[in-house]
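# nightly structure sweep
# worker-07 picked up a monomer target from the shared queue
# config: single-sequence mode, recycle default, output format = structure tokens
# input follows
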Amino acid sequence: MAQLGWIAGTVVLIIFSMITWYTSTLLADCYRTPDPIHGKRNYNYKEAVKANLGGMKYKLCALAQYVNLVGITIGYTITASISMAAVKRSNCFHVHGHSVKCSISNYSFMSIFGAIQIVLSQIPDFHKLAWLSIVAAVMSFSYASIGVGLSIAKVAEHGHHARTSLTGVTVGVDVSGEEKVWRSFQAIGNIAFAYAFSNVLVEIQDTLKSSPPENVVMKKASAIGVSITTLFYMLCGCTGYAAFGNGAPGNFLTGFGFYEPFWLIDFANICIAIHLVGAYQVFAQPLYAFIEKWFSHRYPESGFINTEHAVKLPCCGVYNLNWFRLAWRTAFVIVVSVIAMILPFFNAILGLLGALSFWPLTVYFPVEMYIKRVKLPRFSPRWTCLQILAWTCLTVTIVGVVGSVQGVVESLKTYKPFTTTSS
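# output follows
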């Protein structure tokens, strides 16, 4: 919001939410083919693309989806570690004062987050994640509410006047003209990342009962979900911008626009970390399932890959241990954690991930599947409108990618591997 300003920031956020909601309704109707109610189930996103569009686009979809899922797990590892380190910094500021430079290494917290994910990654599949999703949703509501509340309190603070503008950071005062362009592009990528959940919608829809029809329930759920998240995005963006103005930190709970009450800041950052623990699993499970299914089909006789061993766990009942699942998921989490340690650039990485995934997975494939499923005539009014939507979103994606790549390049100029701290 600080980069785009009151007008463009609000408009872009609303446009992204409307596009995401609309394309999610198209995607919901593609879960079954050829009929959205009585047709054959497609158990994941790429199978829906294969059933509706054919093999080549199926491969492109799988590539886009799984690269994005890996990218999101890297981004969540970075973000969670920043929040965990922020708790330690908050206590440092409280004890030693706000003028002290409290530099905390993020790497130990990335290791802790990775260790937690190694354990949770042994959850067999998506259908066992309901409790984790509920916890993550409660945490998300909690830290967003705290951020909004603290921002309102800061705005109401006597004598506080943050400098804001209709167009965001001011050229010649806050940034140069070139920086203004790059930052605006990166901001668009960050907003795209905020709505980058289409790549798991089909997998989530697969967990629903068949009565009432899955597409009806999913459309309602998407409308409610997008509405609530947009409300909180708007509240956080607008109140945060009002509180901090054009100098707003990239993350107002970890960038230390707030110092007191320190215990409340700590609680909010703990909520962020817990939320990302659950969110990591939601986005990692489709990738886990794909790899394990591929190896199972490729090596059907392998006991290491296909055999499960019943293990009794105290207070948890019987757990079906699979050695391949244990080994490969553990290796995946370790590799993701190491990559996160190498590339700890918060806003630039989030913007790049969002921009790369938004067009193909949120817009292009849902639009193309819908056109194919309902057999829309070429150049008909609706076909033309959908094509305009797709091409416009492609342009926005390119803008976000360019801005985020530039942000990563700038960060690399001063970056030394494995020395980054939260400071």
